[in-house]
Specification:
The structure holds two protein chains of two kinds.
Chain A: E1 6-15, H1 20-30, E2 35-42, E3 48-57, H2 59-70, E4 75-80, E5 86-96, H3 101-114, E6 117-121, E7 126-132, H4 134-147, E8 152-156, E9 160-163
Antiparallel strand pairs in A: 1-3, 1-4, 2-3, 5-7, 5-8, 5-9, 6-7
Chain B: E1 2-3, H1 4-14, E2 19-22, H2 29-34, E3 42-44, H3 49-63, E4 67-71, H4 75-78, H5 81-89, E5 94-100, H6 116-120, E6 126-129, H7 136-148, E7 154-160, H8 161-165, E8 167-168, H9 189-201, E9 205-209, H10 211-216, H11 219-229, E10 233-235, E11 250-253, H12 260-268, E12 271-275, H13 281-284, E13 295-300, E14 314-317, H14 320-330, H15 337-349, H16 362-372, E15 377-380, H17 384-392, E16 401-402, H18 413-423, E17 429-434, H19 435-438, H20 444-450, E18 456-461, H21 466-475, H22 510-516, E19 520-524, H23 530-539, E20 545-550
Parallel strand pairs in B: 2-3, 2-4, 4-5, 5-7, 6-7, 9-10, 9-12, 10-11, 12-13, 13-14, 15-16, 15-17, 17-18, 18-20, 19-20
Antiparallel strand pairs in B: 1-8
Classes of the chains: A alpha+beta, B alpha/beta.
Chain lengths: 170, 573
């Protein structure tokens, strides 16, 4: 087994009940496993929620995480996305303030070049939506920060991931 | 239509609950009302909820049945916390029912409201709040099922008062189907065959047995496995009794206070065949050096216990009994007599023994019990009393030795003995405690007297919190910080004396204390007084007797592996 850490994703089906999110996050915290991201939402079956958890972790610890989650009564199924093709995306909003006309034109150009969507604006502000992988979103934050220093506000949702059907593109 | 409280009582009966450990309160009073005049269930009232859950735990460990607790919300529930963690660590099946404020008040900081599910989530197998009257019977059924199956453990069911009062269906389910909980009921034959192959090739194999064999009741199978293979057996504290301790293949306990033979066998073996242990730090010593010459096979019902602390070569997720049965079916011809004789030589050459003294020693007390009781149930508290008892006690099988092995909970031994006696009225039950731990649940003398239980309560009184004192003596320059129980405010600050002749008198006087509870007490300090003391205890068929054994404050537990040392690098005396 490898002790080198790497980024991994797992997907969980859990009971959609009060306290389940606290149970899962508490379990990981109690065992000192650091999560990078956790997202949760109701599925097509309203009694079931699905979580996507991103961790930067070594092989041995990751095996433990999966076993610990598996033995939780409220966890219905654990899926390890380490070695299978998946699609994963994260929603990121970037709001830029204090924009002049030149800034606005630049934002629209960036949006076009990187496939972002301008979803709202007024005279001085522009709101951009990015739906990309976590690392691509990191790049976008970096780019906007460099271009519009101290004028951006960001919020991101954490990754969601699902097994691919016939593509390997993420 | 019946009330929630009535379906709770029905559930208890359907689950075969004969003894209920229960302490009333505002949010549980409806359940107690439904139990009023109940004849099928023996309702036991301990004097503190912590002792209540330890008693339920002792009942469960000694009978193999599920222990059941009923308490009120808030402080009633939080007083269970230590007992839940104790049971969880040692895989004891408990169902804990807690009253809760009505649903509409939850989250309002109501009187005696706590989020007990949130508090206990990380220390129990499962915790749940009942939120509708409709789901109450199903949740109760699931609670009993989850508690006793797989790796057993405590389950907490929190029931708001309005759900207790609400009317609903009378049906108690007969079947369970929990989509997130499917305990393993089979064994992977491919892995068993690999393990058998390793046994066949091994020159120096060793069975390391944990509590899992006792819990699954695989003792007879384990004995057959040892005898047919001729492989020596060592155990953890929780595994003691897996095969009779008098058996010629039994080589003692592993661990930081284990035997020379056991710890050396681990260092020397070429195959460590472990069943039902989680390789806790108290048994491994320095982890990098643990069994470093050996391949490791690990059988455990809990997949999360495998390769958690040490990486194993052959993992097998299965119930111990089932796995051992499959091993027996596939066992090869083996000849390891030379190796077994070697371990046996170590055992004979380096037995665990204490310095002989004119006064009472823990060794002579425990050996007295070995010689004078037929298959007693022994409970211990935590600390030196536990370690000495584990070193010297002779056991025939499981459900006979109850000790808080994982959590190490002081105050466990006495209430656990109450539960054990209730579950085993025909067995002698002896609690061995220190003077510190005995005081942590001393109020249970009232419970034991009111239940007319003839318990023998041995208090090894050295006037110290002895296990910590031992560490302070050996590793902290004899700086006895907060461990002397004779201490008074007027004492010299940095006293190292511990001399009972000049120190203030010990408090409490256990004999007088026992008498104030209408129990009995006797104080002894010489080995020749043991006969008289036990005879005195046997006179009292309907009340407990404290035998206070005044022992040397400087008596330490040896051998000992200092923290960070390799397992066979031991201080012998």
């Amino acid at each position: 087994m490898n002790t080198e850490v790497k980024k991994r994703y797992i997907s969980l089906y859990v009971e959609n009940r009060i306290g389940v999110l606290a149970k899962i996050s508490g379990l990981l915290a109690g065992k000192s496993y650091n999560m990078d991201t956790l997202t949760v939402g109701e599925t097509e079956d309203p009694t079931v929620s699905r979580m996507t958890i991103g961790l930067t972790i070594d092989d041995i610890t990751f095996e433990q995480v999966k076993k610990q989650l598996n033995r939780c009564v409220v966890v219905i199924k654990v899926m390890d996305f380490s070695d299978i093709p998946i699609h994963k995306k994260e929603l990121l909003f970037i709001k830029v303030s204090g924009c002049g006309e030149k800034d606005k034109a630049e934002i629209f150009r960036i949006a076009q070049a990187f496939g972002l969507e301008v979803i709202d604006y007024d005279k001085k502000r522009v709101l951009v939506q990015c739906v990309k992988t976590e690392s691509a979103n990191n790049d976008m934050i970096h780019l906007f920060n460099k271009t519009f220093p101290s004028r951006i506000e960001t919020v991101r949702g954490g990754s969601v991931a699902i097994e691919a059907i016939s593509t390997r593109e993420q | 239509m019946i009330k929630g409280t009535e379906i709770i009582v029905k559930a208890l009966k359907e689950e075969g609950v004969k003894t209920l450990f229960a302490y009333p309160g505002g949010q549980a009073v409806d359940i107690f009302d439904a139990l009023y005049g109940e004849t099928e269930i023996d309702i036991v009232l301990p004097r503190h909820e912590q002792a209540l859950i330890h008693a339920a735990d002792g009942y469960a460990r000694s009978t193999g049945k599920t222990g059941v607790c009923l308490v009120t919300s808030g402080p009633g529930a939080t007083n269970l916390v230590t007992g839940i963690a104790t049971a969880n660590y040692d895989s004891v099946p408990l169902v804990c029912i807690t009253g809760q404020v009505p649903l509409g008040l939850m989250g309002n900081d109501a009187f005696q409201e706590v989020d007990i599910v949130g508090i206990t989530n990380s220390i129990c197998k499962y915790a749940v709040t009942v939120r509708t009257r409709e789901e109450l019977p199903r949740i109760l059924k699931e609670a009993f099922y989850i508690a006793r199956t797989g790796r057993p453990g405590p389950v907490l069911v929190d029931i708001p008062k309005d759900i207790q009062q609400a009317l609903g269906g009378e049906e108690y389910p007969t079947e369970v189907n929990i989509r997130g909980y499917k305990p393993n009921e089979s064994v992977h034959m491919g892995q068993i065959k690999k393990a058998v192959g390793m046994l066949k090739r091994a020159k120096k194999p060793l069975f390391l047995i944990g509590g899992g064999v006792n819990i699954s009741g695989a003792n007879a199978q384990m004995k057959r496995l040892a005898e047919r293979s001729g492989v020596p057996v060592i155990t953890t504290i929780m595994g003691k009794g897996a095969i009779p301790t008098s058996h010629e293949l039994y080589m003692g306990n592993i661990g930081i206070h284990g035997s020379y033979a056991a710890n050396h066998a681990v260092a020397e073996c070429d195959l460590l065949f472990s069943i039902g242990t989680r390789f806790n730090d108290r048994i491994t010593g320095k982890i990098e050096e643990f069994a470093k010459n050996a391949k490791i096979v690990h059988i455990d019902i809990d997949s999360a216990s495998i390769s958690k602390n040490i990486v194993v070569d052959i993992p097998i997720v299965a119930d111990a009994k089932l796995a051992i049965e499959k091993l027996l079916e596939n066992l090869p011809e083996m000849d390891v007599a030379g190796w077994t004789a070697q371990v046996k030589t170590w055992k004979e050459k380096y037995p665990i023994t204490m310095k002989q003294q004119d006064r009472l020693t823990p060794e002579c007390i425990v050996k007295y019990i070995n010689e004078h009781f037929k298959r007693p149930i022994i409970t211990t508290d935590v600390g030196q009393n536990q370690l000495w008892t584990t070193q010297y006690i002779e056991l025939e099988g499981n459900r006979q030795f109850l000790t808080s092995g994982g959590l190490g909970t002081m105050g466990y031994g006495f209430p656990a003995a109450i539960g054990a006696k209730l579950g085993n009225p025909d067995s002698p039950v002896i609690a061995i405690s220190g003077d510190g731990g005995m005081q942590m649940n001393i109020q249970e003398l009232a419970t034991a007297v009111s239940l007319e239980l003839p318990l023998i309560l041995i208090v090894l009184n050295n006037g110290y919190l002895g296990n910590v004192r031992q560490w302070q003596e050996l590793f902290y320059g004899k700086r006895y910080s907060s461990t002397c129980l004779r201490y008074r405010r007027s004492c010299e600050r940095k006293c190292q004396s511990g001399d009972a002749a000049v120190c203030p008198p010990y408090i409490p006087d256990f004999v007088k204390l026992a008498e104030s509870y209408s129990a009995y007490g006797i104080r002894i300090s010489k080995p020749e007084e043991l006969d008289q003391a036990f005879a005195y205890a046997k006179e009292h068929e309907k009340a407990p007797t404290i035998i206070e054994c005044v022992i040397d404050p400087a008596a330490n537990v040896f051998p000992m592996v200092p923290t960070g040392n390799t397992l066979n690098d031991m201080i012998m005396e």
